[in-house]
Write a structure and sequence with these properties.
This protein has about 325 residues and is an all-alpha fold. It has one domain. Helix content is about 70%, strand content about 0%.
Amino acid sequence: MSLFAFGPSRGPRWPIGLQAAIGLATPIAVMTLLGQPALGFVAASGAFTVLFSSSSAVVERAEVLPFVAGGLVVSAALGVWAAPNSWLVLLGVVLVSVGSAALSFGFRLGPPGPLFFVLAFGLSAHVIASAPVTGPVYLAAFAAGCAFSYLVALSPLLVPRTRTVAARPLREILPGPGLDADARMLLLRVVIVSVIGVLLALIVDPARSYWIVGAAVAVIGVAADRTAALQRGLHRMLGTLVGAGLYALLALLHPAGLWLALLLGILQFLIELVVVRHYALALVFITPLVLLLTGAATGEIGDMSIAWERIIDTVVGAALGAASGFLHPRRR
């Protein structure tokens, strides 16, 4: 995974990119037209659903994604519940990170692994604590976004030939529960980085614990390899730094309403095109997308202090995730 070369192509990515873009942008556009843009930004977070099992046949995704959506909704519900108490949020970051990692690795869910369950928890706690939206309304909007993204992911079934593919049994698609040696090591790394990340957040800012831990979990990914950890850590740091600069430029345009929905959709599409081939380049687009989305949901869009906080959190978390890679034995 070189900084100066793209990885091998794994087939066309534009279909999953288009689905992710639609799942993200449509709720924002619709709710903006209805006069409730804040709920649109919450529902847009449900687009996390469509990012899972992206290389599987549509008929198999139809079986897997309801479990993903359910996990995301549970994570968001825990974040809403813990939001009033900062200590509960810190504990929740650890429990959701470890629990989602155990399930992701135990059932071989594959990329993107436990990351978005951690983000669903953290974003929910952050928005509830800082935006004028109640817990039940937040959860209803988030669940609606997950359901919409699920329907978008199944839209290729409208083409008759996609329905002729025979799906494997669910037990074969998601084998488990069980942890082999590599999965146990990945889970151990998540346990370590989530605990240390939360302790570091007590020094930096407890409210940002989910971002530090999320960055570390993202670096761990699903590859049980020391070199991969170091490379992903470097990619995440540099990609986030450049992405924060892109966010600063986009924030100068003061995007809002339908233009913001379109911009976020374009960023999401670009992310899915490049994420499997160049992780750092994907982070260049991921960083402004997340900053714009969370900033719009909390009314902090354009605040560069938030961007600098995210850079610090990412560097800390990515370094932690990369360092945990040394737990893996050096491969011959």
